[in-house]
Amino acid sequence: MSDQFVPSPPRAKSVSAPTAAIPVGSMSRSLPATRMTVPPSSAAPSAGPGTMSAGEFGCSLVVHGPAVIDSGEMADLVARLRPVRVTVAGVMARCAAEEHGLAACWTGERPSAALARDRAAVLLNRGRDSISGRVFGEEVACRLGRPLVHLECADRVVIAWDGADGWPIAQRLGWPLEQCRAEPAAATGNRRTIRGCRPGDPVMVDGLVIGRATAPEVRLTSGGEVITAEAGCVVRRHGVEKLRRRGPIRLAGAWCTAGTLRDATPRSASGRSRTGRVLVLDHDAIGLYRALDEHVCGVLAIGDDTTAALLHLGVHLDLPVFGVTDGDGDGLVAGKGAPGSVVVRAISERDDDLGGELAVRLDGGPVEWDRFVAELLGYLGDRVRVIG
Predict the structure, then answer these.
(1) What is the pLDDT of residues 217-251, one digit of tens each?
(2) C-alpha distance across the termini of the chain, in Å
(3) Whole-number Å distance between alpha carbons of 239 and 379
(4) HEC states along the chain?
(5) Which residue would you say has higher pLDDT here, 115 or 252?
(6) 148 near 161, Cβ under 8 Å?
(7) Are strands 275-282 and 296-302 parallel, antiparallel or unpaired?
(8) How does pLDDT run across 136-171, given as a tens digit for each residue?
(9) What are phi and psi of 258, to 5 degrees?
(10) Averaged over 97-103, what is the pLDDT?
(11) How far apart are CA 253 and CA 244, in angstroms?
(12) β-bridge mates for residue 208, sequence order
């Protein structure tokens, strides 16, 4: 997916918000080999715009997840490093950047894919602790297959993976520099190990929740049809079924993570017309940004976790959601949605079937949102219960 520009909305202000937790987890095993404290450069500026010529290091930033944005650290580091380009990876990162009024490009790809296109790119991350931050960094470095400079905000350290030159940035920031080597996991067939988990974390494979972690390490295996937990996870069959519909399950190449998507409360907005097209997003929250334009007045969301994510994203977009759920949600993200949002829970049917039935009733033409919602509720009758 090509990068898209995330404009700085005039209504938003760049201020710090409570630190948010992000999904972390990978096949990582190694810890830093060496660590040195780097004194700040005598020319190092205080954070703020205009303190340093643009692109002095010639680097760009690839920002993973919303946590480093919600904490205010991305804004601080952009002001101090003045990168030539900033790319935020993931829908929640884009949401956070828009809410904080930060101009950046956006990609729905993995961070490693964005980094691969730019050899001068530096990874910016905030794990929920120092260990999980390194676990994630090593996962990215292994996928990237080249030296990587990683700014880890959990403990404010520059990590130089596989011989990368992190000294100039470490000196500029006055952060410690760690030299580390990424160790690829041994080839073990169609299986994955996810580390850095916390008991109760939702476990995701390519964006779909397939279970919950019960230990710091989750070990999964698959024959292509189902997923079996060898350790550390209670598998959710319905989630695995949804994953299988996309094709044979290939864990070795999948993006596997554990944890919530964002903890910060979304910021509200107003001004979107309540007349227009309705997007249908079936277990595909990331599809919102692929299809959203000024003619969209609302979203028909199918699936508990998809509904939760879209309710959160819709707040700052002033985009109401009609969510169809069946009660198997995993608390990936908080948010009650923009005004006009309604969530229903199927009484005895699956959200997939009920949502598909509603989707075929749409002809793609414009609707008036409140009337549209009333018609759906009337059509569904006692087959659902309104829960939000």
Answers:
(1) 999 999 889 999 999 999 988 889 888 988 999 99
(2) 33
(3) 27
(4) CCCEEECCCCCCCCCCCCCCCCCCCCCCCCCCCEEECCCCCCCCCCCCCCCCCCCCCCCEEEEECCHHHHCCHHHHHHHHHCCCCEEEECHHHHHHHHHCCCCEEEECCCHHHHHHCCCCEEEEECCCCHHHHHHHHHHHHHHHCCCEEEEECCCCEEEEECCCCCHHHHHHHCCCEEEECCCCCCCCCCEEEEECCCCCCEEEECCEEEEEECCCEEEEEECCCCEEEEECEEECHHHHHHHHCCCCCCHHHCCEEECCCECCCCCCCCCCCCEEEEEEEECCCCHHHHHCCCCEEEEEEECHHHHHHHHHHHHHHCCCEEEEECCCCCCCECCCCCCCCEEEEECCCCHHHHHHHHHCCCCCCCEEHHHHHHHHHHHHHHHEEECC
(5) 115
(6) yes
(7) parallel
(8) 999 899 989 999 999 999 999 999 999 999 999 999
(9) -145, 140
(10) 92
(11) 15
(12) 205
For tokens 């692109």, name the residue.
Answer: 55
Structure tokens at 132: 């999980």
Residue (of 127, 142, 156, 159) closest to 258 by Cα position: 127
Find the length of the chain: 388
Q: Which residue has the tokens 């949502």?
A: 355
Residue 229 in tokens: 């937990």
Q: Whole-angstrom Cα distance, residue 48 to residue 166?
A: 22
| Whole-number Å distance between alpha carbons of 325 and 259 | 21
What is the residue whose two structure tokens read 């002095």? 56
